User: Fold this.
Amino acid sequence: MKKARTGKSSFGKGDWRSYFRLIPYVRMPWLLVAVAFVVNLGYSEVMAYVPVSTSALFSGEFTGSALASAVIYNVLNYALMFGSLILQSWVSYVAIRRAQEILWGRMLRLDMAYYDSHDPSDIMSTLTSDTETAINSLITQLVSLIPTIYYLVRVCMTLSGYDFRLLLSMLILVPVNIVYVVIIGRWQYEANAGIYGRVGRLTAYLAERVSNIFLIRAYTNEEQEERNGLEASKQLYSARLRLARVNMAGDMAASVMEIIQHAVPILFGTYLLSSGAITMEQWIAFFLFIGQVITRVKSAASTWTGIKAAQGCSARMIGIFTAPEEKGVDGGAGERDVKPGDIEFRDVSFAYGDKEVLHGINVTIPAGKTTALVGRCGSGKTTMLSLIERLYTPSAGSITLAGRDVSEYDLRSYRDHFAYVQQDAGIFGGTLRSAMTYGIKREVGDAELTDAAGRTGILPLVNSLPEGLDAPLAISGGSVSGGQRQRLVLTRELIKGRSCMLLDEPTSALDAQSALSIQSKLLELFEGTTKVMITHDLRLLSRVDNVIFLENGRVLDSGAPAELMARCEGYRSLVLCGKEDRG
Assistant:
């Protein structure tokens, strides 16, 4: 089954609608947000009084009340500033954690079609960096935006009370400052976007090469790969150099803007002071206000770049939140008592998007027997297993188990009816114990584990390791052989004791001796269990009860292996071709 990967980065793309739609999905800690907002608002209020209380001292009024006022407001200002920073960080951390928990839970329930059309690395990036960027931006807007506007309004009211021309001299440069911040911010944003893209490509390149280092060495292609890696690194260097130039230009422009933004109001304020329009105390307060206002305006304007990046992140998050969920994954009114029986396909068709891969399948898989799905690549074998497991829903027709439509069963109870053994022996890193008990929802004692491990032939490995059952296992079981991984899976399935097993070429990745041993264990340990397997191993085909032969998404014939050899030309040709290959 081929998966369509988007592979395109949507960094920085998004809209305001998805940005604010995110709020109801992520379960914001509204109480903490409210506390942080109130503290930030209080900080803005106190900050607006600091220049007024301090200006009296600077103008020569050394009375006790003036000194007390200046000290109280400055101490309170710093206390609220630190409190605001701490609270905002705390709120962000809590909100990010909640959003990631909800997003991860959602990802576990998504319809399989979503994973067919999205790159796993993009999905994981959404869970990690996208969530952090989007939530941080949202918290900043919720906690800081209104207090910032309130502060600027309070300053404007104070300055207009001194002399309206003071306010005008400061406000006249605000549009210039905003234009400057937007232009420089756009340059920095584009430069950063270039770095993100190159870092992603370099990371993907290195990860792919490291995971396939044997292929590089087998083809003695180290020199070419080294050149490719150096070229990717050089592109990243060029992007970083461009960002450094943009930052340098921005710093120079910022210095010039800083001088202009201070000089114009100060010169005009000096003129008003010399003409007697304002007092010395008012001029000093005005001078102190300038730095605060410029900092606040620049901070507010510079958040634009961050918001645009967050819009792209939030759009990707919304894509996951609004994607269809697997039907029945959260339980429902379905039947929970799943009884063993024949599995029957009735006029079943299925398509991945617009590509139909199964056409009008009518076939019965008998209970308690071993049935092999056989056919050339792309004939629909894996899709049939996926439909039995209810990973997908038929486009047309129905599938029944023991005479009952599988859609009538509770999904979790239905899937618990099956064991699934994959070609690559699906196990996670951890310990041998965790691999043998994964998905088993009860306590499994050492005695039961040891007994099952002895029957599947994995006990010698357990006994050879000092930690025994608690011996560490590398990611995807990379620290043990393919045959040992399959034995761990068989141990797990033996303990689970399901009445139906789905096997997707369980021995194709093993050497002949290991494959023969695993096949024998399968038939011996799970005798009487319904087994549906995809296999091209002729030794295993000779031992199955029933064969379903598929070609181009259709069942050409089914029956006992000997019967198909006698009457089905396509099956006979495939088997004879396999014999020639082995010979």
